[in-house]
Design brief:
mainly alpha; 5 helices; 83% helix
Length: 138
Amino acid sequence: MKTRTWKIISIAIMLLIFFFSSQNGEKSSKSSGIIVQFVLAILPFLNKDLLHFLIRKAAHFTIFGCLGASFYQSLNKKSVSLALVLTFFYACSDEFHQSFVGERSAQFWDVLIDTCGALCFILVLYFLHKRKKESEDS
């Protein structure tokens, strides 16, 4: 895909994150609660509160991982560090935004989870591209 397409995907993911962050605490909990209920229907022995916590953190990790990956792709796979820094700053702005939303709070812990997700997704792409380039060169 062209870098322009990846830039559009990055913006779309940022808008999606902004939308989710704009939901008040009750609505946000209901969204993840649907997934919790589904998992508990399959694995009823799991702790509901722990599962809810893990699903919410996994959502942070995943969506910011996708954002970091799309930033990396939009930079023509040239800068792991810039893609990571951009994701970190967007995660910071996301938590700041949440501090103004009812029943929500800003937590630096979430910024760290977001950044770790981005780092993991970016590194997977980096090593896949490196491997592909090496195989093309030989």
